[in-house]
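Need tokens for this chain, all 270 residues.
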Amino acid sequence: MMMKVVLWSFEILKSLDMRKTIVLFSVFLFLGINFSSAQKKAKKVEPTDPKQTEVWTPVPVVVTPGQVNSSAPSDAVVIFDGTNTDAFEHLDGSPIKWTLNGDGSITVTPKSGDIRTKASFGSFQLHIEWRTPSVVKGEGQGRGNSGIFLQDKYEVQVLDSYNNLTYSNGQASSIYKQTMPLVNACRPPGEWQSYDIIYKAPKFNKKGVKTSSAYVTVIQNGILTHNNTKIQGTTPYIGWPKNPPHEDGPLKLQDHGDLVSYRNIWLRKL
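Here are the structure tokens for all 270 residues:
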């Protein structure tokens, strides 16, 4: 290929005066050198030494894991560890009226209202444990109902879905009224359950138009129930998802009138 370019170049040079010849020759020479360099760069040489594929920097930050079903990792924001409810408030900003229990959990006080964190968050990894009442009352959506709202807008459903039929995109671990879980991973009522949620927040441009959707991965009781699921928008009881522009938002826990309890809530910002 290179030889053809050179021969073609000399044919053109014969028909030009000296000044034009020099300029054009310089251009051809430049193009030839760069063409040759590009060819060399395009060749990927197979490593012959294992060290050639070792990456030593940067070094990942050390994070100390918490004990199983106990403490949070060293870089986590501890939202609730059972000692106090200082991180929460009701939606009107008042102190929460939910019951702080002696076992390090907190239980919904029916009709007292939803609670939310005072702090706001963007993308995060969330660990939260929950329990529906051991005494079964009601059926469908009327049994052990609550919810975890990411950024105050996107609900991961909490429900007693153990031998309890309801609409699939409204059972425990669903993205409420949008996406059903991959499986039903619920334990019996009265037993503690866990959600580990990896949440990627949506993005909006200056005009308020969504440029990137929210995505969520949910692991319930050690079982994957959502694998990088796209959140279409808000999760209303009636109507289609909406996409109002927003920035960071609080974590909200729902008072749906049932005695649902929570414990060991911590979050790692991503």
